[in-house]
Design a protein that fits this description.
CATH topology: Tetracycline Repressor, domain 2
Order of helices and strands: HHHHHHHHHHHH
Largest sheet: none
Mean pLDDT: 91
Low-confidence stretches: 315-323
Helix content: over 70%
Strand content: under 5%
Number of domains: 1
Radius of gyration: 20 Å
Shape: globular
Distance between the termini: 20 Å
CATH class: Mainly Alpha
Structural class: mainly alpha
Amino acid sequence: MRKGLTTIVSVLQLTRLALVWTAISDIWLVVLWSRRIEHRADSPWQTWEALGLSAGVAIGIYIFGMVLNDVLDVRRDRLFAPDRPIPSRRISVTHAVVIALMALLLAILCSVALGTVNTLLCLACATLLVFYNAAGKYLPALGLMTLGLIRATHMLIAEPHMATLWPVWAVMTHVTFVSMLCHRLERKRPPLAGQEVWAVLGQWAFITLVMIAWMAQRDGLSVESASGLWHGPAAAGLIFALIAVRIGRHAPTPIHAGKRLMRWGLGWLIVYDLSWFVNAELWPAALLLGGLAVLTIISVYATRSLAVMAHQESVYESDRNVG
């Protein structure tokens, strides 16, 4: 019983599965946006099929990225985070690689069913993940913008021809700037100095201009077509800013603040996604993404509870052996 529970908890910790709903929410936003806002002519069955396949892509890409991070960081984690699944030997490197490859295969297979361009974007997203985990995280001027691009590319796998990219831009911007702030708070190495900050801002501005040019070409800049596009997301951004300030004031150290802010930042992506549909009064889509928000909360607390139970059983087993 204890061994099985420990294995489940280890896999959940390795894959960070509790937050996978944020990846599904991001990609479902694009699926539903293209059909409800941009009025893509799909039948209800085709819409549900796209939701299912895109969820498979999101789960695969998310798990691949999370596990790849731990596989490539195993030497560092043995020194600074020995309690993680791989350095603590609860999961072997071989098994972790198998999980990562199976997740990537799932994402590719689902993207193939969506189309050729979708598959190319899936492969591009996987390539960005490999670059970030192998080199980008050590080059903050490139790596932090890469994190935003990973989320943006991942979202567009569902609908590469999406005309209105503002929802994708909002997620990319949120991920990039929250990652920058957390990098500073957690005092990661190499540090994010002034030149690196300007480099990230320059990349962000360039990608923003590229997105605007795409939308202008495809007539996706119209605010009126989305019922006052920015009200909901702007409110969500303001609330998150207040939460970030509160976290900074109450955390015992900047490092604790950075880690907590990153968790909140990832979870808040669903709030952004949800806000677009609330703003447009598309309540079925809003309720669907709201359900993902509830699942995220449940998953986080369930994972924590299972981890506590596994630890308690481990202590009990150790005491019984001593006795």
